[in-house]
Amino acid sequence: MAAAWTSALVAILAVAVASAAPSCDPTPTSPVLDLSFSWHGVVFEWPCLSTKNIYVSSGRYIPKNVIPTRVQFSREYAFVALPRYRPGVPVTLARASLKTKACAPVFVPFPCWSLQEEGNCNALQNVVDIFLDANEILWALDVGVVNTLEQPIRRCPPKIVGISTKTGQLVKVVDLSSLVCSASRLQYVVADVAPDGHTFLYVSDAATRSLIVYDVHRGRGFRVMLPKAVTEGCASRDVLYLALSRRPCGATVLFISYLSSSRLFSIRTEYLRRGTPNGRLITAGDKPSKLIVLGTDGGSALFFRYKGEGDIYMWNTLTCFKSDNFELVQRGGPCRLSTHVAPGYKKLMWTLESNFHDYIQGSTGCVGASIRLQPIYKN
Question: What is the pTM of this model?
Fold first, then answer.
């Protein structure tokens, strides 16, 4: 089990060791870079110094083991997922204000400290992905397994938790235990508000080649088995990416692809919502190389990068999926690689970058990972 989780996590970010360079950060060439944050290690706002000391002395806080991998934005706030890959991660979902410019953003547990308690199944155990819907509800995918890079421990059943970013109130908890099996490996969650106002959640289960579809309004869900074609070219069922694209008419399309597969697929979400997906999955096109899906702009633009490379590309999903339609929107830096791209603060597209390759190897140092949160700019 440990080997399966470790190989999957390494593949999720699919990074190669970056070469040494004089500086990890680009030379400012655009005013939007003034909004950027670059820092080492995650800074938390603790209730008091004694609480922090207790966490440190008990091993519940080990700074070098904390790293943000996913980000969403609401108003001036950035929400991050802090997966419990290793012991010593006190908070797995947090929020920071981007209004106050400081050396590093200060993260506050979201929605509160009590919902971060490891081992308490009423709290969050290991948030691996987050998605903000059109109603300002943040949906957090909690796989329930911690220490996934070392010795995985099943603390609680997997679930999805919906939290209002406006009030911090818990609005929904979706128990996924009846929709998974012992082999399941949940990785990504997408929330889609249908024309009738109902919210649907889609979760990728890479190990079983399937999707979980959940109707929040009716409180019911089901599994959708994907055709064997989605694993064509795959040596293993590594990472099953999801990306939600919205058409000008309002219809939504879910793009699906394994990291190692040779093709990108899509399906209109109306078929998933109706529970009639058979024969509806279509091939968007052949991938020129292994690519990491980073996110969308909430519309028709999909962002990605190639495995082991830092350059970020944008593809307009209304066009054919081919290299001629891939636009380079940001050159990669020498030290970090993007793990997520999302629309956010000041109506800009933002990228979350880190040296996850060093984190995997345990070579980030005692302070922690090198992290950068910045708007995307064309340089």
Answer: 0.91
For tokens 């300002």, what's the residue?
A: 136
Q: Which residues contact residue 347 at a Cβ distance below 8 angstroms, ignoring those fewer than 6 apart?
A: none
Q: How far apart are CA 312 and CA 314, in angstroms?
A: 7
Exposed/middle/buried for residue 32 (C-beta within 10 Å: 0-12, 13-18, 19+): middle
Alpha-carbon dihedral 187, 191, 192, 193, rounded to 10 degrees: 170
Beta bridge partners of 67: none
For the stretch 129-144, pLDDT in tens is: 999 999 999 999 999 9
Phi/psi at 256 (nearest 5 deg)?
-135, 135
Alpha carbon 358 to its chain's center: 19
| Amino acid found at 291 | L
| pLDDT tens digit sequence for 82-121 | 999 999 999 999 999 998 777 789 999 999 999 999 999 9
C-alpha to C-alpha distance for 290 and 302, rounded to whole angstroms: 15
The CA radius of gyration of the chain, in Å to the nearest whole number, is 19
